[in-house]
Amino acid sequence: MSAKDKIKSAAVIGLFWNLIENSGTFLLNFLIGLVLIRIIDAQYFGIVGIMSFYMMLGNMLVSFSISNYLIQKPQIRNEDFSSSLWINLFLSIFAYLLILIFSEDIASYFNNNSISFFIKIYSLNIILSGLSVVQIADLSRKMNFKLLTKINLVGLLVSGIGAIILSVMNYGLWALVIFQLLNTFVVFVLLWLVNRWEYGFVLSLEAVRNILRFSFSIHLVNSINTLYTEIYSLIIGKLFNANQLAYYLRGKHTAEVMPQQFSNSLLKVLLPVMSNLQFDKYGLIKTYHKVLMLTGLINIPVLAFLAANGHTIFILLYTEKWLSAVIFYQLFCVEGMLMPLHIIGANMLIAKGKTKQFMYVELSKRLLQTIVIIATISSIELMVIGLIVLSIIYTLIAFYIIKFELKYNILDQVKQILPYIMISLFIFLINYLNNYILDSFDNYLLLSINIIISISFYLGILLAFKMESYQYIKNIIISKWYRL
After folding, report:
1. What are the phi and psi torsion angles at 94 (to 5°)?
2. How far is 135 from 191, CA to CA, in rounded Å?
3. Which of 62, 249, 263, 476 is the most exposed place for a label (fewest CB within 10 A)?
4. Pair 84, 214: CB distance under 8 Å
5. In sequence order, what E strands does 162-279 have?
């Protein structure tokens, strides 16, 4: 088997295990969240959302995009891994100390002095996460996604059980804090127990310089991107109240399950693959072509269906007390439809080692986002609509990057994705009208009818027009069938 064939085989296996991880993560999060959200008051979810913003800032500092360096670099040395570990250790302690110092000020900013202590406990995640970064990068570089999947699922299961027990015992806010903290701790312990550390503990100044030189541009961009993603919570938490923030976050997090899991599955596998194929233009074009097809085939129509059935889904999952979050959920479903495309487009530059170009592109996006935030800050709904507009613009930017890097015509990219957008629009309209006509039906029955109608319509269109994705899936099924 050739080197390229081995890469492709590892990519397929890696994608398989990532899909298992993401599916398992979704199922466990769904079941755990279903219990917690029915027991714990909405205001506590809003408080955790506030604390998560500052923990995110700490994690952002700690990661320093070191994993990108360890995965992307063609030739890696033991000193690169060991020095990366020392960098993460120093930064994680430094970030945690900063939060300890400013915890009282953070609580005062939100007019809630009682959360100061919880911020100190919750932020211990920063140190645990920081000491896990290099291990995760090591397993990703080896494409050992099977082991990563098992570790992450065990961490989620253990922490979920602990959080449910605490919530039943009426430890509302503590249950949510322990849920995250215990998850991070279990993953940290398992990574160091199961994945043998074979790189030593040498601190090489040369390696540190190389890591910082490569990672600085990417880290600056990723930090700004993360800040801009989470700054909405900061604005809403300050200008509105904890309940409205809780509704916003519930709608956002529920809607982003599908696009984020889909994007993460692709990115975890495709960044190592694209890095290995960075000098193979034809291989990169084929890889990106499949990303376009899979995004159109899976991500866009599923989100269209979920957006149309938001009201029913929230009643069934969270009860009527969370219906105020439905509008945010529906808007975020639309915003997430094209998410994999503009994420993959940007990461194409990272895979080819063009970190400065990546930085310039991402900084221009954030400048545009600043303008949109200022223009829409008067309303939470307007801010989310602004995100939808930005998602479309980011996708067009990604199309241009692909055109420049791979000579893949923008019009051809649009033509490949446009049919799926049109089909998804019809799926949304069919479900929306059906919900209006069958409004008196039981919610479970109504959702079941919509699922059957949507799947039948979608498969019928794929078959009738013999779309490429249909042929692709058909060939996969046939090849698997003959192997049995």
Report:
1. -60, -45
2. 7
3. 476
4. no
5. none
> Are the C-beta atoms of 215 and 87 separated by less than 8 Å?
no
One-letter amino acid for residue 387 of the chain: L
Amino acid identity for residue 84 in this structure: S
For residue 359, the tally of other CB atoms under 10 A from its CB is: 19
The type of residue at 398 is A
Q: How many CA atoms lie within 13 A of 50 on its CB side?
A: 32
pTM above 0.85, yes or no: no
407: helix, strand or coil: coil
The H-or-E segment that residue 145 falls in is helix 145-168
Tokens 């919530």 belong to which residue? 167
Place of tokens 């005062």: 108
B/e letters for 385-406, b = 16+ CB within 10 Å, e = fewer, are bbbbebbeebbebbbebbbebb
Question: Cβ(420)–Cβ(300) under 8 Å?
Answer: yes
State the Cα angle at 372 between 354 and 381, rounded to 5°.
125
Can you tell me the distance from the alpha carbon of 246 to that of 263, in angstroms, rounded to the nearest whole number? Answer: 24
The C-alpha atoms of residue 248 and residue 227 are separated, in whole angstroms, by: 17
Per-residue pLDDT of the chain (484 residues; tens, 9 = 90+): 554 555 445 554 555 555 555 666 667 777 887 788 778 777 777 777 777 777 777 777 776 667 767 776 767 788 888 888 898 888 888 888 888 888 887 777 767 677 788 888 888 888 888 888 888 888 877 777 778 878 888 888 898 899 889 888 888 888 888 888 899 899 999 989 988 888 888 888 888 888 777 777 677 777 777 777 778 877 887 787 777 888 888 888 888 776 666 666 665 555 555 555 555 667 677 777 777 887 788 888 989 999 999 999 999 888 888 889 999 999 999 998 888 887 777 777 766 667 777 778 888 888 999 999 999 998 889 999 999 999 999 989 888 888 887 788 888 888 888 888 999 999 999 999 998 888 888 888 999 999 999 999 998 888 888 777 767 666 655 554 545 4
DSSP for 49-111, written as a single string: HHHHHHHHHHHHHHHTTHHHHHHH-SS--HHHHHHHHHHHHHHHHHHHHHHHHHHHHHHHHTT
For the chain, report the end-to-end CA distance as a whole number of angstroms: 22
Q: How far apart are CA 9 and CA 392, in angstroms?
A: 33
Residue 266: in which H helix or E strand, if any? helix 257-276
Give the whole-angstrom CA distance, residue 303 versus residue 298: 9
Q: Which residue has the tokens 């081995």?
A: 6
Q: Which two tokens stand for residue 67?
A: 């994993």
Closest to 127 measured CA to CA, from 79, 175, 61, 68 = 61
